[in-house]
């Protein structure tokens, strides 16, 4: 029985680009989708028009799970052939643009009908030589280090715009954390990428695979990416100024009080950053409902661990055990959480005894700022609530990198 070989598939394999990657490149080519054109047509995988100019045009859509700055990376190479089957031109993608692969007016190297292209470290934009790439050296170094993970999940693509996949704030955050762990210093020495022919497939097949692949990547991050699992937050003198609180006559229930300036905005920002927040506070339930619900802050918390319900006050471990249980963790994973509060003898002492990272909010002068023992010494101290998102992000990154050393 004779197996029929698709001539276009054979053509795509024959002219498959030779990709040269930085020796420290952390990401592999996931798949390459090909399409062959002999008449003018819009590209099915990019924003460009394809004009074979009387010959044949092969479009390669090169998929990477990761760009150093985001989940999802689809790059392109276009190889132009004349009627005799000779390569007459090569174009490739570079930061959203379609570029002729020329250096100093000279075309890129061709080896046995295959164009040789150099991949920008981490970003996979195409260049004709390492020397040509040096014009972007500083930008490349920044993208691969301080800016790694900057964009989370890439949504500026046709799949996301068509609703084939989306991303929650948590998805973006986990992608950023993973990529911060992948940060590297390029060597700017290059070696050929070993491409498995099985990764070469028709674009129509790759187009079906990509949304499924993105969903699989997001699910893997959710299950396996180390991060800060939750932030436990006190209320009095952490979110609300206790000096302004008014209590119901003959009761401990607070009926009104002023927010610490910016505390509502900070909670909203932490939610946009993809963090899980749990209220861990001492007092009557009605107090926190009265203070937080009218301002839309109550719903920012996934759960509310309040002493009236628990039957004890901080630093009793029962308060923190219930907070951990509310997010599905046992005590062995307490170090994956942090507690922010204003009271050294309650918030900080209780957190420290449980192995929870402790953040002392020293905005108020109603209570001492001086620990009475080592157990009351906070891991971190902030002066203003506005300082919290940056600190939480640094703790989050340290956990992702497998260290509690926060820079």
UniProtKB/TrEMBL annotation:
Its EC number is 3.1.3.-. This is HAD family hydrolase. PANTHER family: HYDROLASE, HALOACID DELAHOGENASE-RELATED. GO terms for molecular function: hydrolase activity. The keyword Kinase does not apply. Keywords: Hydrolase. The lineage of its organism: Bacteria, Pseudomonadati, Pseudomonadota, Alphaproteobacteria, Hyphomicrobiales.
């Amino acid at each position: 029985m004779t197996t029929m070989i698709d001539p276009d598939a054979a053509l795509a394999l024959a002219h498959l680009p030779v990709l040269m990657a930085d020796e420290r490149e952390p990401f592999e080519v996931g798949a390459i989708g090909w399409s062959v054109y002999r008449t003018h047509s819009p590209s099915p995988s990019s924003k460009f028009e394809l004009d074979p100019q009387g010959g044949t045009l092969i479009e390669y859509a090169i998929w990477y799970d990761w760009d150093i700055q985001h989940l999802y990376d689809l790059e392109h190479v276009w190889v132009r052939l004349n009627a005799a089957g000779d390569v007459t031109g090569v174009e490739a993608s570079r930061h959203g643009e379609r570029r002729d692969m020329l250096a100093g007016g000279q075309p890129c190297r061709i080896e046995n009908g295959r164009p040789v292209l150099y991949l920008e470290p981490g970003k996979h934009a195409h260049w004709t030589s390492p020397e040509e790439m040096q014009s972007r050296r500083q930008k490349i170094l920044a993208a691969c280090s301080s800016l790694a993970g900057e964009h989370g999940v890439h949504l500026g693509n046709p799949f996301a715009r068509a609703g084939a996949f989306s991303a929650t704030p948590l998805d973006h955050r986990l992608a950023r954390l993973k990529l911060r762990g992948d940060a590297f210093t390029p060597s700017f020495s290059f070696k050929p990428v070993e491409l498995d022919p099985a990764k070469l497939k028709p674009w129509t097949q790759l187009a079906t695979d990509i949304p499924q692949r993105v969903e699989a990547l997001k699910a893997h991050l959710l299950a396996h990416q180390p991060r800060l699992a939750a932030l436990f937050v006190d209320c009095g003198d952490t979110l609300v100024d206790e000096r302004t609180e008014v209590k119901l006559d003959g009761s401990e229930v607070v009926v009104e009080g002023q927010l610490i300036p910016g505390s509502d905005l900070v909670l909203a920002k932490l939610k946009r950053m993809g963090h899980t927040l749990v209220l861990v506070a001492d007092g009557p339930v009605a107090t926190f409902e009265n203070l937080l619900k009218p301002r839309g802050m109550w719903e920012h918390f996934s759960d509310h661990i309040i002493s009236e319900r628990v039957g004890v006050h901080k630093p009793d471990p029962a308060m923190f055990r219930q907070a951990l249980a509310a997010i599905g963790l046992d005590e062995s994973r307490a170090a994956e959480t942090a507690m922010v509060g204003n009271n050294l003898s309650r918030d900080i002492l209780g957190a420290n005894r449980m192995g929870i990272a402790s953040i002392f909010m020293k905005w108020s002068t109603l209570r001492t700022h001086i620990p009475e023992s080592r157990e009351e010494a906070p891991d971190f101290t902030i002066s203003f609530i506005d300082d919290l998102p940056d600190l939480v992000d640094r703790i989050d990154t340290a956990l992702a990198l497998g260290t509690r050393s926060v820079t």
